[in-house]
Amino acid sequence: MKRRIPVFELCTELEQELVRQQLNPDSLKRYRKVLKEFSVFGGEEVYSQPLGTKFLIQKFRADGGISATDEYSRTETYYFKCIRILAEYYNFGIIHIRNDIKGEIIWPDCFRTCTEDYLGELVNDGLSYPYINRSKIVIKDLILFLDDRGIHKPQDITAEHNDAFIKSYYYLSPKGIATKLCILRRYYRFLYLNRYIQVHLAEKLPHACINGRMKIPTFWTQEEIEKIKSSAERVSPSGKRAYAMIILASELGLRIGDIRSLKLSDIDWEQKKISIVQNKTGNPLVLPLTEDAGWALIDYIKDGRPITGSKNVFVKHRQPYDAFPVNSTMNYILSAVLARAGITSGDKNYGWHTFRRSLATRLLQSEVEMSTISEILGHSDPDIAGRYYIKIDARNLRKCMLDLEVKDYVRR
Predict the structure, then answer these.
(1) Are strands 273-277 and 284-288 parallel, antiparallel or unpaired?
(2) Residues near 239 by beta carbon (within 8 Å), at least 6 away in sequence
(3) Catalytic residue among 180, 255, 260, 357
(4) DSSP character for 285?
């Protein structure tokens, strides 16, 4: 049974815990502001998670509503994070400050060698930056969790600790939990095979039950894509950059990571093709340079791209005009174009990958072979298009429907 504690008392406890974890002064100041407001809101009322949700709704309703885009302001982010951390502290008595990992992490002594060796193996195996970054976050969360339980050596971890740690991810979707389990399983397997632990903890991890995707993937119709293209501002340097990126995403189906890291040398103007090594799979991909994509790139490179020594096609437009960091999602660029087109996300998750889904859907509806679609999109597994994109091809799905005999009493 969960303890009954007044809101102001729980907020005070959390503030003391944040101080104990030596949060940086700026973050601590922002969290204190949120906790103070929530303490006034809840007062001596007994804390519950619905009360935290009610506080957020009232707060942002008074401020004009939560951001309609998928990018929240820094203030909004701190409110969300603080109330989430409060719920986590109330439920589990621990805090996980989950931020993107930038730079090097100083791991605790007993976990340092094994963890650094593990991450080094991921690099040698050619794993992508996003996967390695996610792995760092999960391992950091695990070590913080174990430290709170008095476990400071890998060999002291038990299956019970695993179960308790996984429960701390209660707020994630089944797919999200499965991703964490996959990372943990790989980490524990490395520790066991290299004799950092004596118990094969990877075998003791539960398996997440996921029956395919929980939602139908979002995509744009051809009319919506044309509206996005025509709404893009193509006068300013940033507008030319955004338009060229949208053309590459919508016409060639390139992932945003491959667009971000596209090099000037990847473009063969004479042969009219683009040759890259995909960031996600590490596989080479050669695509024809369409007329629209070619002219959009020429327009940006000649009249929009700052003078810079960077080898990347797309660069930042503020000094020092270098390439975008590898963890940049570039969502703010797309959000500005969507706003001009009058397209709001609503309850759908629109992002750069939506262009890729939309291209696959159009090809599928044009009765292009699955193997050809996978080849165009650069899938490592040729069956991915069939397993994934068929779900959003409603027109062809209707062909799979069986005719049912309808009884007279149903018609009546």
Answers:
(1) antiparallel
(2) 232, 233, 304
(3) 255
(4) E
pTM: 0.58
398 counts as catalytic? no
Nearest to 355 by CA among 265, 232, 264, 271: 232
Burial 288-325 (b: 16+ CB within 10 A, else e): ebeeebbebbebbbeebbeeeebebbbbbeeeeeebbe
Q: What average pLDDT score do residues 262-266 get? A: 96
Long-range contacts of 169-177 (CB under 8 A, 24+ apart): 170/91, 171/84, 171/87, 173/214, 174/208, 174/209, 174/210, 174/214, 175/208, 175/210, 175/213, 175/214, 177/208
What is the distance between the alpha carbons of residues 243 and 249, in angstroms, rounded to a whole number? Answer: 10
In three-state secondary structure terms, 45 is coil
In the residue annotation, 280 being an active-site residue is answered as yes
pLDDT in tens, 271-296: 999 999 988 778 899 999 999 999 99
Is there a catalytic annotation at residue 379? yes
The catalytic residue among 89, 90, 188, 389 is: 389
Q: Catalytic one among 204, 280, 317, 340? A: 280
Examine the residue annotation and report whether 189 is marked as an active-site residue of this protein.
Answer: no
Decide if 263 is catalytic: no
Q: Cβ(86)–Cβ(38) under 8 Å? A: yes
Catalytically annotated residue among 140, 305, 316, 379: 379
Q: Can 353 be counted among the known catalytic residues?
A: yes
Which listed residue (81, 161, 353, 391) is catalytic? 353
Options 260, 356, 357, 362, the catalytic residue? 356
